[in-house]
Amino acid sequence: MESILALFTDHISMIYFIVLSVFVGVEVIGHVPTVLHTPLMSGANAIHGVVIVGAIYVMLNVDANDYVSLSLGSLAVLLGTLNVVGGFVVTDRMLEMFKKK
Question: pLDDT digits over 3-60, tens only?
């Protein structure tokens, strides 16, 4: 219990930053008009390619016998890739609506 309390006291500024970021994110997304929601979300999904790069970087620095970390990293790469591809698919479908036939 003391180690958890020490973790919180050592990283209190980071915890404040994360909580504040959550509140700001909810407020920003909550006030986006419905018309702009799909383009913003598809762009945000494409930006999440950082998750893929981070997961690959972590997997490169993990011991080869640490199967838990390797499987979690593989899952992060898979889900990040699905998120990026999904963002591009949504953007492509949205842009198809504006093309003249």
Answer: 888 888 888 999 999 999 999 988 887 887 767 766 777 667 767 788 888 888 888 9
Confidence (pTM):
0.58
Pair 94, 53 in one domain: yes
- Please name the residue that has the structure tokens 């930006």: 47
**Cα dist from 20 to 27, 59, 96, whole Å:** 11, 30, 37
Question: Would you give the DSSP letter of residue 100?
Answer: -
Which one, of 75, 93, 72, lies nearest residue 83 by Cα?
Answer: 75
Distances (CA, A) of 30 to 23, 41, 74, 82, 86: 10, 12, 32, 25, 22
Residue-number span of the structural domain to which 50 is assigned: 33-101
Same domain (yes/no): 50, 24: no
Residues 67 and 60 sit within 8 Å (Cβ to Cβ):
no
**Which residue is associated with the tokens 């698919």?**
89
